[in-house]
Design brief:
The chain has one domain. The chain starts with a helix and ends with a helix. Helix 1 packs antiparallel against helix 2, helix 1 runs parallel beside helix 4 and helix 2 runs antiparallel to helix 4. The chain is rod-shaped and about 90 Å long. It is mostly helical.
Length: about 150
């Protein structure tokens, strides 16, 4: 492979990684919007939504992992490629320092922390609905007691 091919591969993997993160953010936004618009309390729906989100998050993190490894392999290949011309050396000296990839462990930890915060938000909304329903029931009960 030539230097230009490896750099193109690196950026293709970077773009794929960006799409996985974009999908992740869109799913979380939709999930939180869905949950915030629900009026009635329903633990089974909450449990199913949580389970489906966990399954999605697991597969999304797996795709991010694979793509990150591919991106790192392309980066390693770029750094190990011998410069076959003065142009490659000159361009490499400019571009190579800007090609950085974070460690996967940090990416994984951020994803898992985001997963946990999302699940906590889902259940906080479910608990808010339960509390509101109890308060509503109590208000109706005390209102009915005053009429008798």
């Amino acid at each position: 492979m030539h230097y230009a091919d490896l750099v193109q591969l690196y950026f293709e993997r970077s773009n794929a990684l960006q799409w996985y993160w974009t999908l992740y953010v869109v799913i979380i936004g939709g999930l939180l919007a869905f949950s915030s618009l629900r009026v009635r309390r329903d633990a089974i729906t909450g449990l199913l939504v949580t389970l489906l989100f966990c399954m999605f998050a697991y597969k999304n993190l797996g795709a991010i992992h694979d793509t990150t490894l591919q991106r790192m392999a392309a980066l390693d290949a770029i750094h190990q490629l011998p410069a076959d011309s003065s142009d490659t050396r000159r361009i490499g000296a400019l571009i190579n320092p800007t090609l950085v990839a974070p460690d996967y462990e940090g990416i994984r930890n951020f994803h898992i922390a985001s997963d946990l915060v999302t699940i906590a938000a889902l259940w906080a909304m479910e608990l808010r609905r339960r509390r509101a329903a109890r308060e509503n029931d109590a208000a109706h009960s005390s209102g009915d007691a005053g009429r008798h």
